[in-house]
Structures are given as structure tokens and as C-alpha cells.
Write a structure and sequence with these properties.
Distance between the termini: 38 Å
Largest sheet: 9 strands, mixed
Number of domains: 1
Number of strands: 9
CATH architecture: 3-Layer(aba) Sandwich
GO molecular function: carboxylic ester hydrolase activity
Shape: globular
Number of helices: 11
Organism: Streptomyces filipinensis
Radius of gyration: 19 Å
Protein name: Acetylxylan esterase
Helix content: 25-40%
Length: about 325
Amino acid sequence: MALFDLPLDELRTHRSESTEPEDFEAFWDKTLEEAREHELDARFEPVDTGLSTVRVYDVTFAGFDGHPVKGWLRLPAGATDPLPVVVEFIGYGGGRGLPHENLLWASTGRAHFVMDTRGQGSAWGAGGGTADPVGAAPAYPGFMTRGIDAPENYYYRRVYTDAVRAVEAARSHPLTDAARTVVLGASQGGGISLAVGGLVPDLIAVAPDVPFLCDFPRATVLTDRHPYREIGLFLKTHRGRSAEVRRTLSYFDGVHFAARGRAPALFSAALEDQTCPPSTVFAAFNAWAHEDKTIEVYDFNDHEGGGPFHEAEKVRWLRSYT
């Protein structure tokens, strides 16, 4: 697919038409307050992986409504002092995988906390282990329309809350330094990291790669690729509910969280990306509130974005912060 979105010079000034709800902050303050009524109860069980350079812990903590959420904590073997911690969120449909996977960040000398995404983990990778015990109104297959009838019921209210609690769980371990917490992820993981970047005020850095869940008013009409297309197919059947759906999505748009971003940020965008169109990524980047922000652009890439090239860029970039 050749370039299909705005030219790069227009992307650099593009702003979303998403309207922030008047009670956006009150909604999220109440949501997190309710979640914190449950004890975090973060548990770290050692896993025998056979690895000699990395220690792995099987993590369970209380997320939205106290529901148990799984994760992995990976530490460099031999660490005795608190380390900078990278909290990572996973792409759409994936799970936390197996304990011996994903060793990059622990290999840089940092603690690495990976959050499982509730209800996901069966579309690619090596699986997940976190249920989503909440029922919902009729939805299109996938996760994008689960509970889309109201913000209080929407699936990503639970996921974003889990993610904030994941940061709290990661910081609760004695070998992590809460003052040096980074959040990152690609695609859905990038969108979740934007939400956390707006909800957690004292992060040291945020790195969303080709982030999903941004600029919903444009994304849902610009691309016909899943997962955004799930929303259009839901509305194709449920005619006349567009305004209701737009209202729900406005509480979860990465653009509004970006406007509250208080940490340095490294974004990435791919100009041939039909899954997360570049204009939707730039809408979040241009809204990011902290002045220390950079976006890497991959001219001829689709949703794979910078891949391992961008991983190397993140490693270099984070040296300035952790």
C-alpha cells in the first residue's frame, strides 16, 4: 500500500476533531478511586526458566474491580539495588506469552514488567492468562465494541484501569525504583501507554509505537482494516447509534490522554500504516503536553513500523532518562 493519508507536512500540524467530554477527568478520577478501594495485593512468584542472566516472576495483582490480572516481572540476575522499571503493554489480541520471551529490557539492566491484557491472548503469540469476567451488551466479535453502549461499561475502561494498577504493582517490588518508571508498547500497547501517560503524573518517560486507540472520529472512517473496522461493522447493524458510540469512545481517545502527558515521549508512526493511520498517531503526538517529545517516522512501512530498528532507537533514547 502506497501513501494514503495526509502528506507529512500536514501530519505535523494535524489536530483531532475528537471532543473531550466535560467530565473526562471526573470520570477517570472516580474510576481509579473505585479501583483503589481494592487492595493491590501484588504477588511475585519466582519461575524456574533455566535462564542464567534473567530472573522471572509470575505476577498477579488486582486490577479493575479487584479482578486478578497476570503479568511477568523480569530482572537482571544478580540485581540487588532498585532498578529503573519499564512497564510494557501488549498489542491487540496478544497475551503475556511465556516467561522466557521478550528479554530485551531486562538485558539492558532494567526491570521489565509486562501486563497481560484481560480477555486477550488467543490471536497471536504464546497466549495470555487473564480473564475478563465482566459481561456486556451485544457486540461485534473482537474487543472494540464490548460495552460500547456507555463509558461505564466499555471494555477499555477495565483495560486502562488495569494498566494504571500494573504501574503500581511494578513499583511495589523492592527491586524497582518508582522514580524511574517508563511505560511503552506498540499498537494497542501504545494506546494503553498513552492512557497511562495521562493518568499517572510522575512517569519518567513514555514511548508509544504506532499507537492504536487514537483520534477515533478520523480512524473509524479512514481505514477499513481491523480493529477499527469492528466499530463500523457494529454500526452497520446497529443503525442510528453513531452519536452514542462516539460519546463512549471520547472517554478513551488517546488524544485526550496525550493532552495530559507530563513526561518526555518518543512516538513512532509509519506512513503506509492502514491499521493505525499516521494522522491518528500524529493527532496524539501533536496533543502531547510535555515539550520534550519526538516522533520517528518510517516512510515505507505499514503497521510493523520501525520494528527492530525502532527498538534500537528506544534503547538509545532511554539512556537519557533511566
